[in-house]
Specification:
Blueprint: E1 2-6, H1 10-21, E2 25-29, H2 33-40, H3 51-60, E3 64-67, H4 70-74, E4 79-82, H5 98-110, E5 115-119, H6 127-138, E6 144-148, H7 158-163, E7 168-171, H8 175-184, H9 186-189, E8 195-198, H10 200-231, H11 235-243, H12 264-277, H13 283-306, H14 310-313, E9 317-321, H15 336-346, E10 350-354, H16 359-362, E11 370-371, H17 375-378, E12 384-387, H18 399-405, E13 410-413, H19 420-425, E14 429-431
Parallel strand pairs: 1-2, 1-4, 2-3, 4-5, 5-6, 7-8, 9-10, 9-12, 10-11, 12-13, 13-14
Length: 436
């Protein structure tokens, strides 16, 4: 089947490359000529492990191509996926659907064959209804259906998530559309991936509900971590103890500096706005958003306390190890490091940093931070070394070398990467999250 993927960002590019790897003929479409030129040259616009190789092999096989020409790209496509961004709208926090609707209008203007138009973008409830209305006006007489197919890709593990999904959610009441989407995902049936057909509105809400629930788990364990520090408990033991309950599960119970990235911050906010529009407040999610926002600054204050307090922190230097919101990505959207660096700068602390993949993206967001070529260069002259992102490169640091280059042997481990006794045995003063 020919598949058109409109939008060649994170979701569109990963999904398109994986569909091509399943044997479909995929055209990825984007309005940005520079992005398409780079993709045709084999240069990826994002960092995702294994993506460059996957794209290259499918381009070579003739199953994957890139273009700015939407009319030609959607010609004869049985499935047309909309995978453009839906960022938080400035001013009110609603999801900005202007890109989605613009694609729907352009697709409708050039749709000449039967096709299922699929919203892959994360969109609020009712978006599919508006896409359908736009297409009916723009493409009278053409047979089409509008389906919702939310993505559940984790940055840094997106290819594995696509090929071995927990579930595939498809929202449509049209039987023809269901049959076509079964054909699109048929290769995954061999892996017995569960496929859930729902109404379109249920499918749209599932994505937001899932992200909000995971955000609740993260925020819950972070608040438990604060309590653990107060009472002398160990949050990792607490997380293991509750995570062994099958009703709770162990995932997303890792204490840290708060969640960030492309999904949780904007999706929880968009869900709150939808709830507000329908006069159905979500008090738990409201609290989660507030607690998470304040936590990032609180982690900056934790570092200042490790320096001896605000009175003596001014003029000191801190090294941040890891800037991206999670490892194995270059994504800096709502990364805790941004608020931490700003809190330190506001206190008069000099900040240097190293991240294996994110420094180019991070530098415009934190111009006062000095980017260095490795962890030890960042730690030169530092009064505290802070692990902000749990990259594998920081899991086996040479503490003797760190001690030699740093001004003071102080480590603040915001991801609980290390065992406290091991670090203290190396002569470091060690601070972690939720542990005495």
């Amino acid at each position: 089947m020919k598949i058109a993927m409109v939008g060649s960002g994170y979701v569109g590019l990963v999904s398109g490359a994986c569909f091509a790897d399943f044997g479909h003929d995929v055209v990825c479409i984007d309005k940005d000529p520079a992005k398409i030129e780079s993709l045709n040259a084999g240069i990826m616009p994002i960092y995702e492990p294994g993506l460059a190789e996957l794209v290259a092999s499918n381009v070579k096989a003739g199953r994957l191509s890139f273009t700015t020409d939407l009319p030609e790209g959607i010609r004869d496509a049985g499935a047309i996926f909309i995978a453009v961004g839906t960022p938080s709208r400035r001013g009110d926090g609603h999801a900005d659907l202007s890109y989605v609707y613009a694609v729907a209008e352009e697709v409708g203007a050039h749709l000449a064959n039967d096709a299922v138009v699929v919203t892959k973008s994360t969109v609020p409830v009712g978006t599919g209804d508006e896409v359908e209305r736009i297409l009916k006006e723009a493409a009278p007489g053409v047979r089409f259906a509008v389906a919702s197919n939310p993505e559940f890709l984790r940055e840094g593990a997106a290819i594995g998530d696509f090929k071995r999904p927990d579930r595939i959610v498809i929202g449509t009441d049209d039987e023809w559309a269901r049959d076509l989407m079964r054909e699109v995902y048929r290769p995954l049936f061999l892996n017995r991936a569960p496929i859930l057909f729902t109404s379109r509105r249920s499918s749209e809400l599932i994505k937001y509900a899932a992200n909000a629930f995971l955000a609740v788990k993260i925020t819950f364990i972070n608040e438990m971590a604060d309590l653990c520090e107060k009472v002398g408990a160990d949050v990792q033991d607490v997380a293991r103890g509750i995570g062994m309950d099958g009703r709770i599960g162990s995932k997303f119970l890792h204490a840290g500096p708060g969640y960030g990235g492309s999904c949780f911050p904007k999706d929880t906010l968009a869900l709150l706005k939808t709830a507000e529009d329908y006069d159905s407040p979500l008090r738990i999610v409201e609290s989660v958003v507030k607690v998470n926002d304040s936590r990032k600054r609180a982690m900056g204050r934790k570092v200042i306390d490790a320096l001896g307090g605000a009175e003596v922190a001014r003029g000191k230097k801190v090294a941040l190890l890891g800037l991206t919101f999670k490892p194995n990505t270059d994504d800096m959207r709502d990364a805790p490091s941004i608020a931490i660096a700003q809190t330190l700068a506001d206190a008069g602390v000099e900040v240097s940093a190293y991240d294996p993949e994110g420094m180019e993206v991070a530098q415009p967001l934190m111009p006062a931070v000095t980017m260095r070529g490795n962890a030890y260069a960042a730690a030169e002259g530092a009064d505290a070394v802070v692990i902000v992102t749990e990259w594998d490169a920081f899991r086996a640091l040479d503490f003797k070398r760190l001690k030699d280059v740093a001004n003071a042997p102080v480590m603040v481990d915001l991801r609980n990467v290390y065992d406290p006794s091991d670090v203290r045995a190396q002569g470091f003063t060690y601070h972690s999250v939720g542990r005495a």
